[in-house]
Task: inverse folding
């Protein structure tokens, strides 16, 4: 999401690029474009009005910092204001208080409450080392109980066997008693929803909350990011009726315009605590306003990328590959591990958006699916190779070529094409290994023009090890090992 907003912001900033200083005249057109972009993204009009006024006031009152051009300074002001309206910093649930922490998950039907309950249980189990009990309390949709039990089994978390003939408040009280017996520290209660807000639903949720009020329950409302201002209105209604302590935005990986994320905190006063970014149970992230502001402004999100890498990359595999790398050895197995690591981090597009400045490049490239399909084809070819062939691809002759093609459902020409691309990759890695052994950037392969011990320094005579990978033209394509002109 936010791709359209990011593009429109990027176009708006062109009005101020190249200016020697910030004045009311030269930012007027930029602010007009920013205002239009935010309104089209379905951001609450009061939020837009306050945001634009705050940016204008700070931009005109800011002294130009020496060495920083006005365009960069304006983007920094935009970043700070975007982060402010979304909440400044992440505010996760306080799980360190004594006793059981009950978490009521509320919201309308179809918002993703049950899926989020499972995701949150996995997050708390893995990240916070908490013993979690999942509780189905949706007495209107019996299938929700079966769904939650399936998710609990999938993530290896206990699920309370609720009697759906009881009132949800009774289910909640019995679940708390069971949690005490099992020494659980967190109880996640998946409540009922409706297709719309009604008095009956609110009364039921009030009763559930009141039944466990002595434990000071957290109330997390799940809102569909795709519904824009409707999500803001529903959040406000729920908060006024039962007292919401945090908001969760689901379907944030969709083509949602982003209005909900930019408006909810400012309109309701309730912090956004989590965002759901995909279908897998691990696809849950803490909501960091400053990081999201960076993504919107194409400033990247390196911190989140590093955290993803720490969570998803196998340390022993990475160490083994690095040892091979230092020896100047790069095998097909190493290449497969690299592709698996990339896949574990997410789609190519989601990864590249976390790298500063890559958003604009992605908009120029367009569809990345051909490059991702190429990676899938490579994996299938590799899976048809023997262990010896993966360690030394040079032993692959005609008979082996036929067997690999037959086993992978590809043609001999496609297998030859893969081997040719891998040879280029091997040569590139050899050049990077040589730079690294000669004192490249500490802790990672040397990049062109970067002397590790002296920090980043530009060397105009540096050899670019990525030269063979760059396509000549995104339409015509090049002959890099990743395919035609994508990388």
Result:
């Amino acid at each position: 999401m936010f791709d359209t907003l990011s593009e429109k912001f990027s176009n708006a900033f062109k009005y101020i690029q190249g200016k020697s200083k910030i004045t009311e005249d030269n930012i007027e057109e930029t602010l007009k474009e920013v205002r239009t972009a935010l309104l089209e993204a379905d951001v609450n009009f009061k939020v837009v009005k306050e945001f634009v006024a705050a940016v204008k006031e700070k931009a005109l009152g800011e002294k130009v910092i020496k060495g920083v051009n006005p365009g960069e300074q304006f983007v920094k002001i935009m970043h700070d204001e975007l982060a402010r309206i979304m909440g400044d910093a992440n505010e996760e649930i306080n799980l360190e208080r004594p006793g059981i922490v009950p978490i009521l998950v509320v919201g309308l039907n179809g918002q993703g409450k049950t899926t989020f309950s499972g995701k949150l249980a996995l997050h708390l189990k893995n990240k916070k080392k908490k013993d979690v009990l999942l509780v189905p309390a949706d007495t209107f949709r019996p299938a929700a109980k079966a769904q939650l039990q399936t998710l609990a089994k999938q993530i290896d978390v206990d699920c309370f066997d609720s009697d759906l003939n009881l009132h949800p408040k009774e289910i909640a009280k019995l679940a708390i008693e069971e949690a005490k017996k099992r020494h659980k520290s967190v109880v996640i209660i998946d409540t009922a929803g409706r297709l719309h807000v009604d008095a009956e639903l609110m009364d039921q949720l009030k009763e559930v909350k009141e039944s466990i009020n002595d434990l000071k329950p957290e109330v997390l409302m799940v809102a569909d990011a795709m519904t824009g201002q409707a999500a803001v209105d529903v959040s406000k209604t729920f908060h006024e009726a039962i007292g919401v302590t945090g908001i969760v935005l689901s379907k944030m990986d969709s083509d949602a315009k982003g209005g909900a994320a930019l408006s909810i905190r400012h309109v309701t006063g309730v912090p956004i605590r989590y965002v759901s970014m995909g279908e897998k149970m691990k696809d849950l992230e803490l909501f960091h306003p400053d990081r999201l502001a960076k993504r919107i402004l194409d400033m990247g999100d390196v911190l989140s990328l590093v955290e993803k890498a720490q969570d998803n990359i196998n340390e022993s595999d990475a160490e083994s590959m690095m040892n091979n790398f230092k020896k100047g050895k790069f095998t097909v197995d190493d290449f497969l591990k690299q592709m698996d690591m990339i896949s574990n981090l997410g789609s190519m597009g989601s990864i590249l958006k976390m790298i500063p400045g890559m958003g604009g490049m992605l908009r120029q490239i367009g569809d990345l699916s051909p490059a991702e399909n190429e990676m899938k084809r490579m994996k299938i070819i590799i899976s048809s190779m023997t262990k010896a062939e993966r360690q030394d691809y040079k032993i692959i002759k005609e008979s082996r070529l036929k067997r690999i093609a037959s086993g992978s459902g590809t043609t001999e020409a496609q297998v030859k094409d893969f081997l040719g691309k891998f040879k280029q990759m091997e040569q590139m890695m050899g050049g990077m290994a040589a730079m690294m052994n000669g004192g490249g950037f500490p802790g990672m392969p040397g990049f062109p023009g970067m002397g590790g011990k002296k920090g980043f320094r530009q060397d105009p005579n540096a050899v670019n090890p990525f030269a063979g990978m760059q396509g000549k033209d995104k339409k015509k394509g090049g002959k890099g090992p990743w395919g035609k002109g994508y990388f």
Residues 412-437 form the longest helix (26 residues). The longest strand covers residues 218-224.
